[in-house]
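[Q] Does anyone have a clean structure-token version of this?
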Amino acid sequence: MNYYLANLSFVDMWLSSVTTPKMITDFLRENKIISFAGCMCQIFFAHFIAASEMVLRVVMAYDRYVAICKPLHYSSIMNLQRCTGLVVSSWTIGFVHAMSHLAMIVQLPFCGPRDIDSFFCDMPLVIKLT
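[A] Here you go.
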């Protein structure tokens, strides 16, 4: 379980690091512009890390299920090779999920800058195509 918790902490650290730097710079600047590539990069990493976290939580639930329902067989079922395989599969599923979303989003028509008014504040976000 500590192996999964360490991976979950790593994923949570990266999830909060995806959009926070851009958000902080936008708070300090008057001009709030993000490039198309920057926007797609944020979308990819947000989906990649969030999907990896969701699958990792499912893996952790499976680990607890095995520990509770088959306590005598736990060490033979959840060996280091299986734990590593489940973590790698969570990262792989997250990558496939993010790539599928990115493949659909990139095909959408983006023509020139668009003002997107935020629901919670009056600061518009402009996506500038370069």
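[Q] Thanks! Anything notable?
[A] The helical segments are 2-28, 36-69, 74-77, 80-106.
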